[in-house]
Structures are given as structure tokens and as C-alpha cells.
Amino acid sequence: MKYKKKREYLEILLAYIVVVISIAFFIFPLIQFAITSVRPTKYLLTSIIPRRLTLDNYRRIMAFQVFTQPLINSIIVSSLSTLIVVAVSILAAYSLTKFQYKKKEDIAFFILSLYMFPPIVAIIPIRCIAGTLGFLDNRIFLSATYAFLNLPFTVWLLRNFFLSIPREIEEASLIDGCSLWGSLFRVTLPLALPGIAVAIMFSFIFSWIEFLFAVILTETEAITIPVAIASQVTYFIEWGRLASMATLSIAPVLLLSIFLQKYIISGLTFGAVKG
Amino acid sequence: MKFRSTWYQKNVHYLLLVPCTGLVLFFFIYPMIYQLKLSFYSAMLYDSGVFVGFNNYIDTLNDPIFRESILRTFYFISVSATIELIWGIGLALALNKITRGKRILRGTIIIPLMLAPVAVGSIWNYMYFPEGGAINILFRLLHFKEQVWLADTKTGMLALILVELWQYTPFGALIILAGLQTIPQELYESAQVDGALKRQIFRYITLPLLTPLFVLVAIFNVMRQFKTFDIVYTISKGGPGHSTNLISYQIHQTAYHFYKIGKAAAQSFLLLVIVLILIMIFIRYIRKFY
Q1: How far is CA A14 from CA A27, A128, B175, in A?
Q2: Would you list the domain boundaries of chain A?
Q3: Was domain A56-269 assigned CATH 3.40.440.10?
């Protein structure tokens, strides 16, 4: 018995060691970078311990059109694309769960498989098409592209949430005289509200952090924050400015992840595991 | 019940799919056809070029840079996916074991996952900085030889893999942790009543129940690693030499650095074929899971 207890303690100790080392590894670079953003640039590379803190870097980038314009663009593009994709996905997911027809499953898995394609395979023709239509450097076109990129994820997430709503509730509403749309808006959507919240959060974040399409489809007017950050990574990097830009772009996502933790787990598994 | 018309009633499930289909047609099907056509032309960025038959494909298959970048991508994927899975399992088991501060710790490991890969690249670029970067300072303290991480062909790939691990190990850990918590407690209790050893419980209850989840995590990791582009762009730009030139970055370079749109289209198409084969295998598995 005593031996068993000792073993149990050892196991718990090992668990703590694994967790502490891992967490330190995951969190240290972030903290160090955040601290870098509030240090005067000239002392950065001479010592690792901060002696003097300053908000100069933030003041400078907020007065800097090369950053404020992308900030506004990112907010517009992320919101618009989220709006489009969630609306489109609600309709698609509703069709893929509440109706019975042939090929339903095949359509659903085709949409899922779209999620797995590397976006690079579509970037060249999409840029050519945008060029011929005159949509390069256009925030609305970029939003529509993001709506497509987020589509497979949102459709699947909502599909899994809709599937968990008992069919009887919806059938009852139809028998009681609700129209199809009435049933969707008054019964299904309120019940799937957590799922819709997850869909909104994830598609907003995905659009907020997307880089490849942003850098190819924009030039000057419509560039988003990730493009602005990447453009700072040149041969001579001004670390203070880069760190403050990156920290600002991280902040909203960080707040979301802390407050909406349990939703994130269900989002990561496409709604298969409900946090 | 009143319905507007029988045709509408019969087809409403297809009508609901119309906006979704529109997006897929415009942003996927049409671009793929367009790309197939492009790949047979000697197109440059601002010049539509002439029909060259299979030249772009022959050119691509004979290009050692392309072939190596495919192999390099597979190397990158197999190393990082393996470590991510093992570390993820270990971390999930450890988090499941501890009792205090679990919520906060779980919240902490979510953070890297949600960050912009571009920001992650910048953060690690700073970590790897030879003069004053944290990694070299750590190495100096431990009396190891300091390295010029991103300027050495031997360490470049290693550095890239570490960044991938940093950002996405939590993904597997979180999903496996969620899976661990859904295993019914009664299973463990009845096994204990039957006198099973801890080791046996793990081997015959926990592992078999979690294996599908391991495969799922591995699939999602692999498919995501194929897309790796942002961190290459912000950390190493494919260099030094071609030592971190993964396939997505290689295609991007062909198209927008050398302006060979036709050749890049052919490369994209070859990548599409490779990925398509993998997707068909993976989807077959996922269909069983969902």
C-alpha cells in the first residue's frame, strides 16, 4: 500500500513537471515579445533584463498610417467576411441536417475536404481572376475570399451543432404552424446559439490572422495587419516597432481565448466535442 | 400547412445550398479550371504567354528545387506531426492528472493556437536572433555553443520545426484532453473493482478509446502543415540556400518572385494531385469517425 502511494505521488510530480516545462515553453516567447514592445529600442540587444519601460513604440505606430490603415482594413474585412460566411453556412448547414435527400453526406464531406486543400493551390488563378475583374486591392473581394476560406469550417461546425438539436422540437414547431423559415429562426437558431457564437468567433479570428491571400490580393489600399507586420520583417528589423504591432494584433485574440475558453475547444474539433 | 408552391417545397433543400455553391464555384471550381488552362501556357505575371503543351510540367518535374521542396515538406511534416502527437498526448495526460489550476493552464496553452502565424514568426525571429536573442542567451548560460540559427543550413529547418511545434502542439493536447474527459468514469471504476492494474486500465481502456482521436489529430496536423507558409515567410524566407523552402513557399516564389505564372500553375496542380490522394485516404477515415 505504501509503495502504491509513493508511486501515485511520483506520477503527480511527473505530471507537474511536464506541464510546467511545456507551459513555460509556450508562454515565455510571448511575454518576452510583449516586454520588448515597451522597451526603448536602443537598449534591446545589449541586455535581456528591461531597465526602463516606455510606450513610445505604441505611440509611434498609432500615429503611423502604415499601421492604422491596416488596422481599420482588418476590422472591416474580418467583420464583413464573418457576416457573409455565417449567413451562407447557416443556410447550408440547415439544408445538410434537417432534410433527407440523396448525396447529402457526399456534399457535406466534399465541403469538409475543401478545408484540407493548401490555399496556395488556388492563389494563382484567384489573383488572375481578381486582376481581370479589377478587384485587386479591394476589401470587399478579400472579404468574399475569406468567406470562402472559412466556409468548410463554419458549415461543419454548424452542422454538428444542428445535428445535436433533437429533431422532434423542430417537427413540433412545423406541426404547430411554423413555416420553414419560422422554424429556422425561432427554434433552430436560438438552440444553436453557442455554435453560432463559435462560428462567428473563429471566422473572425481566421480572417484576422490570414496572411497568404492578404499579401497576394492587396497592394496598398486594402492591406491587413498581418501584411503590415510581415512587411516589417526586412533585413534590418526594428524590433520595438515590430513587437508593438504584433502585440496589438494579438491582444484581441488573447482576450477572446481567455474569456471564451470552452467555446474554443468545441471550435477546434468542428463542434464534435462540446467543450 | 400552407406552402408557397410544391416546386419550392420539393427543392428548398437545394435552394438553401445555392449561396454556398456559388462561393465554391467562384472561388474553387472555376479557379481550378482556370489554373489547368494556365499550366499549359508560358504565362508570366503581366503576360498571358503562348500555348506550350506539357512543357511547364516537364520543366517542373525536372526542376531539382521543386522535387527537393516536396521531399523537404514531407520531412517537415513527418518530424513535426510525430513530435506534436507524442507531446500532445503527454501534455494531455499530465493536464488530466493535475488538480489545481487546470482551467488557467488549459487557457494558457490555447493562446499560441489562436495567434497570427505572422506574429508567431516575428516572435521567433526575435528568439533566434544571434546577438541578444533568448535562445542564444540560454545556450550561453548552459555553456553550449551559440548558433546563428536562421543563417545556417543545418539549423534552419530545425528552427522552423520548433516554431511549428510551439504553435500547434497545444491543438492535439487540447483535443486529447477533451477526449480523456469524456471517457465515462464508470468504466474505470468497474475495472478497478475487477482488480485491474493501473497499467492495464491505461492499456485496455484509455488507449483504445482515444486511438481514433489520435488519428484525427494527426490528420488535422498533417493537412495544416501542408499549408505552412506564413512562418517560412517571416522567419527564413526559404533560406539559407533552400534549406527551409517548403512547397507552398516554393510555389509562391515561382509565381511572384520569378513571375513564372504558368510554371507555378503546373506546380500547384501537381501539389493538388498529391494532396487529393491524401484527402481521399483521410476522408475515408474521418467518415467513420463523425
Answers
A1: 20, 55, 21
A2: 56-269
A3: no
